[in-house]
User: What shape does this take?
Amino acid sequence: MKQFLLRNASLVVFVIFLLMIGFWLVSDDIDTSNSQTEQRIEGTYAVTRVYDGDTIAVDVDGQTETIRLIGIDAAEIQSPYSEAECFGNESREYARSLLADKVVRLEADESQDNRDDYDRLLRYVYLDDTNINYQLVLEGYAHEYTYRDEYSNQAMFRAAEQQAQQQQNGLWADGACSDFAPEPSQVDDDQLNAQDSGNWQSSIPDGCVSYVDAERHIGQQTCVTGPVDHVFVSATDTTFVNYCSDYRSCPFSVVLFSDDKADFPAMAQYEGSVITIFGEIRTYEGRPQIILENPSQLRQ
Assistant: This one.
């Protein structure tokens, strides 16, 4: 009897073990599948907007996805958060002439992240068989640009930039920027009035600045005060505290990377509140921001 019970107990343990292995394998397959789906938003999609020479938007199954072109950097255009740079408008218009209302093919690069810190998909953009990223560099409408890690087409893009310089294409032409005079950067009055309607500016601490004036203090250690419009968490688990409904036209934002997220629980609680952020004002692609790394940087 004792041997019978032992044999059955062993059988039960073995069956449970097999079930656990099977569950682990199925779970692993599911997670991998989801990961691959996120990594591979590729294929053909309609272009819905061309923001500038290196950023566009496409329609993906009814959802708008912003695409940052891999391996290039185009000059800035005039906006509430950045001053226009030489050849920024020309780059945007050239990109629009190629891509506006077209259907393009997106291709990822395994050497690069799926998305950047602003939740934009990092992709090569193809129109028929033409690599638009490469074309923009070759024709002198963008620089070759390596961000963090080397990408698979780096050598080809750098050679294209050298050729553009030798042939004096686009921004490399003699006198291309001789008549360029950037307009003074300023915050849109309508945006300022809308954001200031709560009379919160009267509560700005001494020595701090309004978020609408942040771009005037780039590179400085200071404190910035303003009302939070919304808190957004990207697919890369980066948290953005935005002071405007559209971060692309906002003069300031706060960035919290995933490594420091545990020190800042429940960031969404600040939506609709006036907060003050301490730190160095830096820029990312022309957008003023402060990176949160320590809870002492945030006060309400």
About this structure: The chain has two domains: 43-172, 189-299. Residues 153 and 264 are 38 Å apart (CA to CA). The longest strand covers residues 43-52. The domain at 189-299 is CATH 2.40.50.140 (OB fold (Dihydrolipoamide Acetyltransferase, E2P)).
